[in-house]
Amino acid sequence: MLASTSSSSAVDMIKARTYDVFLSFRGEDTRDGFLSHLYNDLCRKTIETFIDSEKLRRGDEIPKALLTAIQGSRVSVIVFSKDYASSSWCLDELVKIMDCNKCVVPVFYGVDPSDVRKQSGSFADAFAKHEENFKHELERVKSWRSALTAAANLSGWDSQVTQPDSILVDKIVKDIVNKLNCGTSSANLEGLVGIERRMQKVLSLFQDEIPDFRKLGI
Question: In what helix (H) or strand (E) does residue 79 lie, and over which residues does it extend?
Answer without folding.
Answer: strand 73-80
